[in-house]
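Aim 2, interim progress: modelling of the NAI-bound target.
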Amino acid sequence: SPQIVITGVASGIGKETAQLLSSRGYHVIGVDRAPVEDFAGTFIQGDLSDPTGVNQIADKIRETAPAGIDGLANIAGVPGTAPAEVVLNINVFGVRDLIQAVRPQLQRGSSIVNLASAVAYQWRADKAQLAEFALAADRQQAMTQALADDHIVGHSYLFSKQCVSLLSEYFAAEFVADGIRVNSVSPGPVETPILEDFKNDHGCDKVNSAATTLGRFGAPADIAQCIAYLLSPEAGWVNGTDLRVDGGLTAYRETAQF
Ligand code: NAI
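Predicted structure of the complex, ligand included:
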């Protein structure tokens, strides 16, 4: 059966995606820093926030699937209520470094999906600035520079998720000749434990008004279905794009001005 690595499987969207893919016959290699009991597949406990942790996780993935893997879903992430350095380390470098670490394991025809966010559509940072941070060879120096920028620190979550979309395009281009696809998914507000953090970060009224406009918040399954599609061969010609899964929220907000 196809081997898929999924991060963030202890909670929310990652947990739901792992269950969905297991039920479809995939062997799921789940990763999280929080423990998981009775995981249907292979569970690896590890921390994606620093390079040592990422390398330990990649070693265990290699041991679990010596013949290679067929996909990777980078779902682990932290909300903007965490300190900016933590947000940038996990949401940006955790994603980038895990992709690079498992790159030799990814077989032709495999697919990578990274979780961005619909909030990243609220303003677009300069692509050159995103690339300078997200693709920096010297991670320490890039972090020092970013933490000195008040705009990045004040919008660390938005900035981190724009970096995720940029990294997805970047790796899609880099891996295209190897038959490995890379896309991002941008959810709107989904009912998981971090929705409370989003209310604190973006304003309770703003988040709640989204549910009023759309009739409800998103459910983890709404997002998991789209991640599963992008991981599957059915999405074989979908590459280097961002799939917004927000119930129409961004479209609603962007057209409100007309
Ligand atoms: P969640 O908080 O329910 O799950 C996140 C999981 O990631 C947790 O199990 C956590 O332990 C794990 N994790 C965090 N840092 C880690 C690290 N350093 N190493 C290993 N594991 C780590 O969150 P949720 O809602 O399921 O979010 C999943 C992804 O979707 C995140 O990237 C989030 O930013 C994104 N997203 C969520 C939205 C929402 O409204 N819930 C909206 C837009 C994007």
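Residues 21 and 80 are 28 Å apart (CA to CA). The mean pLDDT is 96.
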